[in-house]
Write a structure and sequence with these properties.
The complex is a heterodimer of chains A (299) and B (319). Chain A contains twelve helices and no strands. In chain A, 72% of the residues lie in helices and 0% in strands. Chain A is elongated, with a radius of gyration of 23 Å. Chain A is mostly helical. The N terminus of chain A is likely disordered. Chain A has a single domain, classed as MetI-like fold. In chain A, helix 4 packs parallel to helix 7 and helix 6 crosses helix 7. Chain B is mainly α and 319 residues long. Chain B has a domain of 205 residues: MetI-like (MetI-like fold). Chain B is 74% helix and 0% strand. The mean pLDDT of chain B is 83. The chains are: A mainly alpha (299), B mainly alpha (319).
């Protein structure tokens, strides 16, 4: 990296210094709004078990379908209302936030780890093998993620754990493709050639020279994959293929509410709103990061 | 030109073969084998499987023993009808909104539209569908909640496209049935087209804004052409390139949405049939459903590539 910097060969390096990026990010109103919402959601998810008024699975059989506070008949004990079995919606939403964010984070980290590793290996493979691997990744990428996840769940069976494995598998190709193509792109640049001529081996080349230049692209991909993971887990839950009742998961809660949407619309509105706001804030943050970290993509 | 076409065709064929590998694997999960293979070797069995697929023998459903391909073809028209209708809405309104925003770029209309599309893009469609049902079907009562047509109409399935079948049926209620079918179609189509439409609008706007800076647009303007003609004829043709590139992502989103939409509205299409098969572990039907839906994606991508090839003069030169 020193080599590159002293020769001024890599102009992208200057974007990867913390200050200008943060300035760009913090001047982006949408991104800041998204980041704030996301941080609040994450905090709520972390302290959830302590602030939840009830156990998410606790049923109050005499209090089913209590409307939220702002509706007629709402009360403070269950200020977001209760569902068909008299379970407190606020507690369930908090538990759902914890579950969704934790699972999505786990999924994205595992998928990115495997994907980046595979992509880095692929970039140094002989062209023939690499092309076959990349064609296969292209095929997987062109298929709808949910369809692939359904195919995986069909083979290994429904359930939350299996849904997580399915979504991990579905997200891997994006990272393989991104890593491979950005490494190949960087390898063709002058600074990489200079490092190679200097005698740098692939591992050193990868970590010291090329690595810092592809990290921004991977961070951006991480954010968007995070929202895909969250959405796919919720969708699988909604379709009855992911988390099974009585687990308080947003998609599953939405599925359970379907029978009562006319009678108790809040049981449908609130979990959906939670999914929507979280996805929106992640996407806003992702857009902001893309503008801040990689101005070239946007132009 | 021909070389490029052949390569596109070859890529799609290879993709379909890659898919059959996946579905072969799924079909092997069935408790009783899908076909009677003559060999014990998995590798040669795969080629036998391919042969069966080509002959139209896609196996028998493990639920009721009906032929899977027949069932698939029975459900396909409903899916296709919904897909085409949603695609039309997405392209038409996406283009319209994008052009509108690009025309007034920087103005309040542009900002409002782009804010709305950002919000719309993040909308989980399984929630959006339920909200639409709550408002239009249950609150206003103007659209039906689910299904393709009301039970009071008996329409003989000829083409299995409900809009066509109602029109060619010689019942006295043919027209009423047509509008009933259309009414059933509208809410699922809006649900399904929502996310692709917002992406379409954003893409149209951003590529138009870039293109409108070009010199040839200034030339066209100085010739005295109207703004409408400049945008619709001169700029849009150029913008088509990037719109077509993004469309392959769109079709993938559309198929994901299709499965969810069919589930919400109990639409008797391939997506719903596939979900039913998954929940009952009917592997022969699962492999058929996945093969069919992924093939739609591959065929659409091939068509898109062909159109892009045709539109791009640089790619049109002979080999």
């Amino acid at each position: 990296m020193n080599y590159a910097r002293t020769n001024g060969l890599s102009f992208r390096l200057k974007h990867w210094t913390a200050k200008p990026s943060w300035q760009m990010f913090s001047h982006n109103n949408g991104a800041m709004l998204g980041a704030t919402t996301l941080v609040i959601t994450i905090l709520m998810a972390i302290i959830g078990p302590w602030i939840a008024p009830f156990d998410p699975a606790q049923q109050f059989s005499n209090r089913s379908f209590q409307p939220p506070l702002w509706n007629q008949g709402g009360n403070f004990a269950h200020f977001l209302g209760t569902d068909d079995l008299g379970r407190d919606l606020f507690s369930r939403l908090l538990h759902g936030a914890r579950l969704s964010l934790m699972l999505s984070g786990f999924i994205v980290l595992v998928a990115a780890g495997i994907g980046v590793l595979l992509g880095a290996i692929a970039a140094f493979l002989p062209p023939f093998v690499r092309n076959i691997l990349m064609r296969f990744m292209d095929l997987l990428l062109s298929l709808p993620s949910l369809l692939l996840a359904i195919a995986v769940v069909a083979v290994i069976g429904p359930g939350l754990n299996n849904a997580v494995y399915a979504v991990i598998l579905v997200l891997i190709p994006q990272f393989v493709k991104l890593t491979q193509s950005s490494i190949s792109q960087e390898l063709s640049k002058d600074y990489a050639m200079a490092a190679r001529l200097d005698g740098a081996r692939p591992i050193r080349l990868l970590f010291k020279h090329i690595g810092p230049n592809i990290v921004p692209a991977i961070i951006i991909q991480l954010t968007f994959s995070f929202s895909t993971a969250l959405l796919d887990i919720a969708a699988l839950g909604f379709l009855g293929l992911g988390a099974q009742p009585p687990i308080a998961e947003w998609g599953t809660m939405l599925a359970e509410s379907r029978a009562y949407i006319q009678y108790a619309p809040w049981t449908m509105a609130l979990p959906g709103l939670a999914i929507f706001l979280t996805i929106l804030s992640i996407n806003l943050v992702g857009d902001g990061l893309r503008d801040a970290l990689d101005p070239q993509i946007n132009q | 030109m021909i070389g490029a076409l052949l390569r596109l065709l070859l890529t799609s064929i290879v993709s379909v073969f890659g898919l059959t590998l996946l579905t072969f694997f799924i079909s092997r999960q069935a408790s009783s084998p899908l076909h009677f293979y003559r060999s014990d070797n998995v590798f040669t069995q795969y080629f036998e499987y391919l042969g069966f697929l080509f002959k139209g023998d896609w196996g028998k459903s493990s639920l009721n023993g009906s032929d899977v391909l027949t069932e698939l073809l029975k459900h396909f028209p409903a899916t296709f009808e919904l897909l085409i209708f949603a695609l039309f809405i997405a392209i038409f309104f996406g283009l319209l909104l994008g052009i509108l925003a690009a025309k007034h770029r920087g103005g309040w209309l542009d900002n409002g539209l782009m804010g709305a599309t950002l919000v719309g893009y993040s909308m989980p469609i399984f929630w959006w569908g339920l909200l639409l049902v709550l408002f239009f079907s249950l609150y206003l009562g103007i659209t039906p909640v689910a299904g393709r047509i009301d039970y009071q109409y008996y329409i003989k399935p000829v083409t299995r496209f409900m809009l066509v079948d109602t029109l060619i049926s010689n019942h006295h209620y043919g027209f009423a049935a047509f509008f009933n079918a259309l009414n059933h179609l509208i809410l699922p189509a809006i649900t399904l087209s929502w996310v692709p439409m917002t992406i379409m609008a954003r893409m149209t706007r951003s590529s138009l804004v870039n293109i409108l800076k070009f010199e040839y647009i200034r030339t066209a303007r100085s010739k005295g052409l109207s703004q409408t003609r400049i945008i619709w004829v001169h700029a849009l043709r150029n913008a088509m390139q990037s719109l077509l590139t993004i469309s392959s992502l769109q079709i993938s989103i559309l198929i994901t949405g299709l499965i969810i939409t069919e589930y919400i509205f109990a639409w008797p299409g391939v997506g719903n049939w596939l979900l039913n098969a998954v929940s009952r572990q009917d592997y022969p039907s699962i492999q058929a459903g996945i093969l069919a839906l992924s093939s739609i994606v591959i065929i659409f991508n091939l068509l898109l590539d062909l159109v892009a090839n045709y539109l791009d003069p640089k790619k049109r030169r002979p080999i």
